[in-house]
Design brief:
Layout: H1 3-23, H2 27-40, E1 47-49, E2 57-61, E3 74-78, E4 81-83, E5 87-98, E6 101-110, E7 118-126, E8 131-136, E9 141-147, H3 154-157
Antiparallel strand pairs: 1-5, 2-3, 2-9, 3-4, 4-5, 5-6, 6-7, 7-8, 8-9
Helix pairs in contact: 1-2
C-alpha cells in the first residue's frame, strides 16, 4: 500500500461519517456510498505541461471593471509568464495537479531593481481559459479575469501585446 492510498484509506471513513451527519444517513451506509466517489477523485501525480492553458492578454483583478483597470489591478499574461507595471514572473515549471489546478514555480523580478529574481510557488485554479485564482505559498490570493484591450482604459487600448517572436 502506498502512502497516498494509506491516507485515502484513513480519510475515507472520516469523510463518510462527516457526510452522514450532514445529510442524516446512517454511518455504515455512508461508508459504502462515499468510498467509491472519494477514491475516483483522488489526485494523480502532477503532470508537467508547457504553460498555463489561459488565453494570453490583459488580466484585471476580479473586483475591478475592465474599463477601470489601473497599474495596480492589471497583469499581462504571456506564454512564459505574467507581469504587472513593476515586475515580471517567468514561469520556470508548470505542473497540472488536478483538472483545473496548476502548480507554477516562477522567478519574479522587480523591473526597477537590479537584484536577482526571487523564486516562488503559486497554485493557479482556472475557471475556463480566461479566469484564474492564484494562491501564493506565502498566503496571498489574487483572482483575475481576461479583459479585451478594447474594454480597457485608453492607456492600454493601443498597446501591441502580441507575443514577441523567439530571439
Amino acid at each position: 500500500m502506498t502512502v497516498a492510498s494509506a491516507r485515502v484509506a484513513v480519510l475515507l471513513p472520516m469523510v463518510a461519517l462527516a457526510a452522514s451527519d450532514a445529510v442524516g444517513i446512517e454511518p455504515a451506509r455512508a461508508l459504502v456510498t462515499a468510498a467509491p466517489a472519494a477514491v475516483a477523485q483522488a489526485p494523480a501525480s502532477p503532470r508537467r505541461v508547457a504553460t498555463l492553458p489561459l488565453r494570453p492578454g490583459y488580466y484585471v483583478a476580479s473586483d475591478t471593471p475592465c474599463r477601470r483597470a489601473s497599474n495596480a489591478t492589471v497583469s499581462l499574461l504571456r506564454r512564459g509568464g505574467i507581469g504587472g507595471a513593476r515586475d515580471f514572473c517567468e514561469f520556470q515549471k508548470v505542473e497540472q495537479t488536478a483538472p483545473d489546478t496548476y502548480r507554477v514555480t516562477q522567478a519574479c523580478k522587480d523591473l526597477q531593481d537590479s537584484g536577482p529574481a526571487q523564486s516562488s510557488v503559486v497554485t493557479y485554479t482556472l475557471s475556463g481559459t480566461e479566469r484564474f485564482t492564484a494562491r501564493h505559498a506565502h498566503g496571498w490570493v489574487h483572482s483575475a479575469r481576461r479583459c479585451a484591450p478594447s474594454a480597457m482604459p485608453p492607456a492600454w487600448r493601443d498597446n501591441d501585446i502580441r507575443e514577441e517572436p523567439p530571439g
